[in-house]
Amino acid sequence: MNLDPLSVPYRAGESVLRLAWVLVFLVFGNQTFGGFTGVGLVVVAWFLVTLAYQLVYYQRFEYELTEDTLDIASGVVSRRNREIPVRRVQNVDISRNVVHRLLGIAQIDLETAGGSSTEGSLKYVSFEEAKRLQSEIGRLKRGDTSTDETTAEAPAERELFAITPKELVLLGVVGIDLRLLSFVTVLLPVVAPSLTGQFGDPLVGLAVTAPLAAVAIVAVTAAISGALAVTNYYGFRLSRVTDELHYERGLLQRFSGTIPLEKVQTLSISENVIARRLGYASLAVETAGYSPNDAGSQSAVPLADRRRVFDLAQSVEDFEDVAFERPPKRARQRYVVRYGIVAAVVVAAAFAVDRFTGLTFAWYATAVLVAAAPVAAHLKWRNLGYDLQSEYIVLREGFWTRTISVVPYYRVQTVVDSQTIFQRRRRLATLVVDTAGTSGLTSGATRALDIDEAKASELREIVADRLQEELVKRREQRRRERLGSMEAAA
Amino acid sequence: MDDTDSAGDGPFGSELAPAVRRVAADTDADTEESPGRNVPDIEALTGPQQTLEPAIQAVWILQSGISAAVLGVIAAVAFAFFSPGTPRLGGVVFGAVFLLGAALSVLRYRSWTYEVREDSLYLERGVVTRVKTVVPYVRIQHVDASRGPLERTFGLATTVVYTAGSRGADVSIPGLTPERAEDLQTRLKQLAIAAEGEDAV
């Protein structure tokens, strides 16, 4: 099959727009360059050239969805034939920006676990064709061989979650990057001297400028994150079709995609400080498909009531209610020392600046940080934890953004237990349970930080053993399924 | 559609696993006796904790010597331009870094062990940070053997094990003789096949 014919002018237009940036610089940077008529000529000529190229590209681009592969033959000068086994497909995503929607075309991307970039990308097919491919691939992957499309149409779809306007607004509020905010507010007293110079009394100046600046920064970040939340997650909807999750989202650019439940690697539930206060959380479902830098697209639920998020997560992975075990108290001492050192360095730096440069300010104000170190250590410690369940290990970490990762033993790739020289001193160790999921922005490493060293090596062996048990279980189940299907066929 | 990749354990018996059996057959004869299971003799493949070849210390010491020399030259140039100090300090930097590197190399060698266990590869290593890694055979994607120029000089090789994991995924075992590296590679290959990894992801 071919791409949609409208993709020819659209792709040509795209490359003209890319050229436009160069031209803008040329026109404004160099007045002698032929003026606007010259530019116009270049644009028209370039458009014709690319139009011709895109026409050939269109003619030489073919794809076909067979029973078990998607074959793509493409390339104008160097040809490439690619076969993607349908069973290996992790995600199928459709995206449409405003222009796509006007033209009725869509971009469809297929992700498999291999490679660093998207494995199969069709730019562009008609929206109906994209939908058809998405559901066909889903159907083939389920092993549903009834090729009669009209009768096998649309298996039961069950809506799991739809974002409400209230949640959308909250998402804007919660989406503020608190780390940035805290960084700014800490930095402010240091930057403030230059601002306070305009006031008679430096202390009054600081008292006036600091809160004002903080308010302004909060307002700006809130506005930006709110706008981003609305454009990204407007009309968010998550539904379940047999064993796949379907999502749709976006105001200007619409995204829709599928997440096959059997390919789910880990679940992570994250809640930042504000969300925790309000009792909200978000859920991310990680598969092995995406490359690390577009981790954002796999968020399953951007924001919902905490209870609801847990219910949803438990419907995807059947883990029990979590009861975390915290690291030993001596881990907390470690953080007190660490933060104390950081605070001391800051105080010393502030003192040095005050003493040896022209800037004079209340350097001793930074001593507050020293007092804050134990508090910060306690908060960090409090939010750590792990929970060993029969089929999952659940890990928790983070104060600003607390992330709870649910890792099925069946998905474990490697188990690593490591001890730095400082951890050895306190008989602590860190256990990393690695999966093939793309640990993106939403979750860091899936690890149990600073647990007792004996416990860590015990857990390391338990996790590895349980993986083997799960493998045996799955193998048995598959064998039984196969016997069943053979009997049914006979 | 049938699941074609978990070969060997189906009701179809031996016809399902030609590729698997071929690899197993060229090493172990007992696959003939047990047609349904393509498992090579696991007992024979596993082994106790192993250490590296002592010659790897020389490689590491030389490597630290090279980086110490680079640092020493940089320090010498830097001290030549700044007033309190002479280029001779570069030599001091070189000496200090080299001694530290050499000590770490010896300690690193002593800390390194690996063990081919029944269902996973187990590694222990590290001086400053002690790391213990368990790599289940089901998760092995492929196994490489590599030999850098310094390693070749000392007749050594490295075995690299790749998994689909996202972080700290690829483990390498340095300091093996080429024979040992090759032996390890085949062992791991067979154990990975015996583990019947289906998706590996």
Quick summary of this structure?
The complex is a heterodimer of chains A (490) and B (201). With 490 residues, chain A is an alpha+beta fold.
Structural class of chain A, please?
A: alpha+beta
| Cα radius of gyration of chain B in angstroms | 23 Å
- Tally of separate domains of chain B: 2
Helix content of chain A: 40-55%
Give the strand tally of chain A. 19
Main sheet of chain B, how many strands, which sense, barrel? Answer: 4 strands, antiparallel
- How many alpha or pi helices of chain B? 6
Topology:
The complex is a heterodimer of chains A (490) and B (201).
Chain A: H1 7-29, H2 35-59, E1 62-65, E2 69-74, E3 80-85, E4 89-96, H3 98-103, E5 105-112, E6 120-126, H4 127-141, E7 157-162, H5 165-174, H6 178-196, H7 202-233, E8 237-241, E9 244-249, E10 254-260, E11 266-272, H8 273-278, E12 280-286, E13 299-305, H9 306-316, H10 329-356, H11 368-382, E14 385-388, E15 392-397, E16 401-408, E17 412-419, H12 421-425, E18 428-435, E19 447-452, H13 453-489
Antiparallel strand pairs in A: 1-2, 2-3, 4-5, 4-10, 5-6, 7-8, 8-9, 9-10, 11-12, 11-16, 12-13, 14-15, 15-16, 17-18, 18-19
Helix pairs in contact in A: 1-2, 5-7, 6-7, 10-11
Chain B: H1 18-25, H2 42-45, E1 50-51, H3 55-81, H4 88-111, E2 113-116, E3 120-125, E4 130-136, E5 140-146, H5 149-153, E6 157-163, E7 171-176, H6 178-194
Antiparallel strand pairs in B: 1-2, 2-3, 3-4, 5-6, 6-7
Helix pairs in contact in B: 3-4
What would you say this structure looks like, in words?
The complex is a heterodimer of chains A (490) and B (201). Helices cover 47% and strands 25% of the residues of chain A. Chain A contains 13 helices and 19 strands. Chain A has helices at residues 7-29, 35-59, 98-103, 127-141, 165-174, 178-196, 202-233, 273-278, 306-316, 329-356, 368-382, 421-425, 453-489, and strands spanning 62-65, 69-74, 80-85, 89-96, 105-112, 120-126, 157-162, 237-241, 244-249, 254-260, 266-272, 280-286, 299-305, 385-388, 392-397, 401-408, 412-419, 428-435, 447-452. In chain A, the strands form 4 sheets. Chain A has a 7-stranded antiparallel β-sheet with strand order 6-5-4-10-9-8-7. In chain A, strands 13-12-11-16-15-14 form a 6-stranded antiparallel β-sheet. Chain A is globular and about 70 Å long. Chain A starts with 6 loop residues before the first helix and ends with a helix. In chain B, 42% of the residues lie in helices and 19% in strands. Chain B is built from 6 helices and 7 strands; from the N terminus they run ααβααββββαββα. In chain B, the strands form 2 sheets. A 4-stranded antiparallel β-sheet of chain B has the order 1-2-3-4. In chain B, strands 5-6-7 form a 3-stranded antiparallel β-sheet. Chain B is elongated and about 70 Å long. Chain A binds chain B through residues 67-68, 87, 113, 140, 143, 145, 263, 265, 288, 292, 412-421, 424, 432, 434-439, 445, 457, 460-461, 463-464, 467-468, 471, 474-475, 478-479, 482-483, 486, and chain B through 1-3, 6, 9-11, 119-120, 126, 128-136, 138-139, 163-169, 171, 195-196, 198, 201. β17 of chain A pairs antiparallel with β4 (130-136) of chain B, so a sheet runs across the interface.
